[in-house]
Design a protein that fits this description.
CATH class of the largest domain: Alpha Beta
Strand content: 15-25%
Oligomer: single chain
Bound molecules: pyridoxal-5'-phosphate
Radius of gyration: 21 Å
Largest sheet: 7 strands, mixed
Order of helices and strands: EHHEHEHEEEEEEEEEHHHEEHEEH
CATH superfamily of the largest domain: Type I PLP-dependent aspartate aminotransferase-like (Major domain)
Number of strands: 16
CATH topology of the largest domain: Aspartate Aminotransferase, domain 2
Number of domains: 2
Structural class: alpha/beta
Shape: globular
Amino acid sequence: MSVVYNFCAGPAMLPTQVMKKAQQEFINWQDTGCSVMELSHRSKDFMALADEAENNLRELMAIPQNYKVLFCHGGGRGQFSAVPLNLLPVGGKADYVVSGSWSKAAAKEAENFGEINVLNVVEEIDGKKVVKPSAQWDISKDSAYVHYCPNETVDGIEVFDIPDFGDIPLVADMSSTILSHQIDVSKFGVIYAGAQKNIGPSGLTIVIVREDLLGKARQETPCIMNYKTSADNDSMYNTPPTYAWYLAGLVFEWLKSVGGVSAIESINQRKAQLIYDYVDQSSFYKNSIANEFRSRMNVPFWLEDESLNDEFLRQAESQGLLALKGHRIVGGMRASIYNAMPLAGVEKLVAFMKDFEQGIK
Ligand SMILES: *Cc1c(COP(=O)(O)O)cnc(C)c1O
């Protein structure tokens, strides 16, 4: 089989080294004679693995001691409910900043639990989409928390500056940007991320929560969504997604081996820049997001002549460039280039885009 580059938005490709290691260890992990997925989550061996994965994530993200790291079920959307259940008091109010389709979905879910102030922060200036500066976000004074999505996976809009609302906790859906660039965790109350974009397989969700926010959950919060219950039980109140946890651990090890988040950040910058630069100098492709808000993880682009979309995708696939079709809401193309996508994959994509353009002209 020739080399394939998978640009899927999620579940996304994993590093080749990780997949090879998992394959080698699949039926006999560390001479136990068992697969990791066959071991008790309470066994000494698994607990050691679980601890190491958490410690590596803490190291990679420089997570301060006063934050808990939870390994949960339920994905990003599970957190759309878990966040208000844990942080929004009955009768309380929260602010939801909407910069694209995922933050909009999070706000809609939160409306089941209380009064939600929805702030639309994307506007179009000279034909380009921009995000209003956070100083202009009209946050309610009595807000329990402010929720936003730093990287909008579908829309390709990323907000790099971290907002600051003083004592009001900031909650971030980092499903598609966690570990892609360095951030100061201490600026957040809660960070959550479904694993299937930049961490591992689907079925695992990481929650990083500041300790003073634990213990405020509503009475009716399901136990498996209760942050304090999870924290008090080292994420093992119920059976955690053990195999996904193991794979996430391998990804964290891999990320450390390539130099950690700062090293991957500069590669990610280069990868994204290659595509945007090519799109910008071409009259054949376009992208309508202002430079400073362009996602480094999900790069959407459109062909000026949309009737060529199917042919573009067909030829791309025949060259091993997979899953470039844009999300149905926005159309066009989307190259998701998470940490695991090597520079060579992006170079091959850009070379193909050029060949395709020249072949048509
Ligand atoms: C993929 C994604 C989700 C949804 O995750 P699920 O695990 O499918 O629930 C939520 N938010 C963002 C930003 C995403 O990219």
